[in-house]
Design goal:
It is a single chain. With 440 residues, this protein is α/β, with parallel strands linked by helices. The protein is 36% helix and 22% strand. It has 13 helices and 18 strands. A hairpin with a 5-residue loop joins strand 2 and strand 3. 46% of the residues are buried.
Length: 440
């Protein structure tokens, strides 16, 4: 059958494929989401796990399961064929017009941190469902299948996306989540099947790309007055546990110039690290987030202090340079204080660079909507960093008021939610129309 006859058959059946409608009517600028519906659904979803101290919809809790049941109904109402995979992820699919074409996958998560907010993850899920619902309401078909995904337990370590992208070890499954359940128990609680986890793995040929809309969780877009963030990549994270050994002694009888004060040495390190990182060109960040003194008595000069360093950047070379500088700072403080530093790397993750091709399409889609854009990295982890291992991936950010996230004060304006959802929809349509010319 030739292309004209194929289009004629589709039209006769009552569904115009978007690649055909584009040629007939120009770009798909006519397609817009129902913004009021998304923002109403955000309020309704917030009821699951609502508490006086913030949202408590942690993975594998009753509130999580109730929220997922609400999302399942929305997906079905939007015309998606819904299933729960063996990892406990929710997937809703709408078939395309081209047999055997790989799917355009998009979505996010709805689980929260303890006492979190109502936008982190939720915006991406509800906007993805609304994007499909918009097309269904216009009886518009895409060439590629569309799949909306709701990953389970993003906040507890990207569990659902890790299982989709490559799996977890048997030991990992015994880790206890915030709900008090192990990951193994939680997967079953959500309707998954631990005995068949391999079936949740997604091969690269199944997926054309992955897109994720998310609140920024930082203040860059708000500060610059930009509407849409085009994410360059998700930064690499490294963590050290640093131990400073000095000499514990009586706080009242040990002269100041005779002390080997581990707390003083640790505090000096934190100050010098901050000064050094701020002075370097670039967007690297470093944080001392935890510090504990031993023996921890008010009348004892601390003999040992253990503290954490969390440092992040897109460039591995920058992280290597930071580590070298950390050790230089420690050596200088050792000489000045008579203490000894030791570094133990406790966690590391590789950077996940986003697809240049998809980033171009996001920027083009936003421009077509009259929206301003800004390229920026993501300092927080997302399911996208796992999906980038198996398919071209990109993220769309929208502003977070005050740069606040993981807090009851987390907020994104209704207008920005709608701008993000429309950018997502237009990007999906652009990807469907153009395909992917290269792996990124």
């Amino acid at each position: 059958m030739d292309r004209r006859a194929f289009v004629g058959g589709i039209v006769a059946a009552g569904a115009m494929p978007l690649w055909a409608s584009t040629r007939a009517r120009g770009p798909e600028a006519a397609f817009r989401v129902d913004g009021a519906r998304i923002n109403d659904q955000l309020v309704r979803l917030a009821e699951f796990g609502k508490s006086p101290t913030g949202t408590r919809r942690m993975a594998y809790t009753d509130a999580d399961r109730q929220g997922r049941e609400y999302i399942l109904r929305l997906m079905q109402d939007a015309g998606l064929e819904v299933r729960i995979d063996t990892a406990g992820n929710i997937l809703g699919r709408r078939e395309g017009t081209e047999a055997g074409a790989p799917a355009i996958l998009f979505g996010s998560h709805i689980d929260s941190v303890p006492n979190g907010g109502n936008y982190d993850g939720d915006v991406g899920v509800l906007s993805s469902i609304e994007a499909v619902r918009t097309l269904v309401s216009r009886n518009a078909r895409t060439r590629h299948p569309l799949e909306v995904v709701v990953f389970q337990n993003e906040e507890g370590g990207l569990v659902g996306s890790k299982l989709m992208a490559g799996g977890l070890s048997d030991n990992d499954l015994n880790r206890v989540a915030n709900s008090g359940k192990t990951l193994r128990e939680g997967i079953g609680f959500l309707g998954g099947d631990v005995a068949r986890l391999d079936e949740a793995r997604r091969s690269p040929d199944q997926t054309l790309c992955y897109l994720e809309l998310h609140i920024e969780q930082g203040g860059t877009l708000e500060t610059l007055g930009n509407t849409i963030g085009v994410v360059e990549g998700i930064v690499s994270l490294r963590e050290f546990e640093v131990t400073v050994d000095g000499f514990a002694n009586h706080a009242g009888t040990t002269p100041m110039d005779h002390r080997q004060d581990a707390m003083l040495a640790a505090a000096q390190f934190a100050v010098e690290m901050n000064r050094m990182v701020r002075a370097m060109p670039g967007r690297q960040v470093a944080t001392v987030g935890r510090m504990a003194a031993q023996p921890g008595a008010p009348n004892v000069v601390p003999g040992r202090v253990v503290f954490s360093i969390d440092y992040r950047d897109l460039a591995v070379a920058t992280l290597d340079r930071l580590e070298e500088r950390f050790r230089e700072i420690a050596r200088k403080i050792e000489q000045d204080t008579g203490t000894r530093f030791s570094f133990d790397k406790s966690n590391t993750s590789a950077p996940a660079l986003m697809s240049d091709e998809l980033r171009t399409m996001i920027a083009s889609s936003a421009a077509g909507l009259g929206l301003t854009t800004h390229s920026l990295p993501s300092g927080a982890g997302h399911d996208a960093q796992q999906m980038a291992k198996i398919t071209p991936t990109a993220m769309i950010f929208i502003p977070s008021r005050g740069g606040i996230s993981h807090s009851p004060n987390e907020y994104t304006s209704p207008d920005d939610v709608v701008h993000g959802a429309n950018t997502l929809l237009q990007t999906v349509l652009l990807v469907d129309q153009n395909g992917m010319t290269r792996q990124s």
